[in-house]
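Researcher: I've been going back and forth with a colleague about how cyclic-guanylate-specific phosphodiesterase might be arranged in three dimensions. Neither of us has a model we trust, so I'd like an independent prediction. The organism is Corallincola holothuriorum, in case that matters for your notes. Sequence below.
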Amino acid sequence: AKNQGANRYQFFSESMNEQAIKRLHLESLMRQALKEGMFEVHYQPQYSVERQQMVGMEALVRLRHPEQGLIFPGDFMPLAEESGLIIDIGNLVLEQACKTVQQWRDIGLYKGHIAINLSAKELDLDNFSDHVEAVLAKTGLPANALELEITESSVMQSPKTAVESMQALRRQGIMLALDDFGTGYSSLAYLKKFPITTLKIDRTFVMDLESSLEDRQMANAIITIAHNLGLEVIAEGVETRDQLKILSAMSCDVCQGYYFSKPLSQRDMTTLLSTQQGN
Ligand code: C2E
Ligand code: CA
Ligand code: CA
Ligand code: CA
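Model: Here is an independent structure prediction for cyclic-guanylate-specific phosphodiesterase. You can compare it with whatever you and your colleague have in mind.
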């Protein structure tokens, strides 16, 4: 039995070691990616339910690895946040997305906005809103064409500075969306407390809309409350025509999901914009 215990211990410490090595590898890969331009921004369309046209898009970051291909944020975001690299990655996404979208706007391909995800660490920076202002000035993107997506949990990491940042961003005319609504803290009180313009209903509520009466009632209640507070509502993760129909009947404003399109590379989005009219 003693022997077994020793073996188990050895196994345990080896796998810990392996994990630590993996983390080191991933961290140095992210540093390399920042230096060598291996991070890419992809764009997922958001469609107005009423007007049936693209009114926005969400920027989603990917790491293009020379051998492994595309690596998705689920695999590197947690470590990016923990290590603080998220600040540089977030910067890169903000600059790249604002610049690209303004180029599309300049040549008349696109009239809508760009939504960009923020991490808790960015929101907690002292001069974050000044930084965003500088990026808008540099790229020429108007403030009202930028929407920043913030989760409740990232606001709650340091609520005071986060809300101050949000207020400063709103004063510039930047739109603010509360992301993943319905997961995590999900307190209705935050809808009044946070200076937001938009509410994004999480995919977990959209997933079972067809089969679950409870989820339909929940989605309907969220949309009604949001509208009463003057907020625009976006549903994320819309994958089927029936989900779209149900959300449309509930007067959801905007839908986003695989039913319309997966996130597209800059090149593929340029092609999509060129083949659509009146965006
Ligand atoms: P999120 O902000 O909730 O983004 C939505 C995620 O759902 C994206 O995953 C998107 O590709 C995926 N998605 C979109 N439509 C559908 C659908 O119809 N069905 C399903 N099953 N999934 C759908 P992705 O791109 O892997 O991003 C995952 C998360 O990583 C994001 O969740 C966001 O929290 C984070 N993230 C991505 N890019 C950035 C970034 O530039 N900065 C920060 N801070 N976080 C980012
Ligand atoms: Ca988001
Ligand atoms: Ca989301
Ligand atoms: Ca999510």
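Researcher: What would you highlight for our discussion?
Model: I'd start with this: The beta strands are 39-48, 53-65, 69-71, 113-117, 146-151, 175-181, 198-201, 232-236, 254-256. After that, consider the following. The first helix runs from residue 2 to 36.
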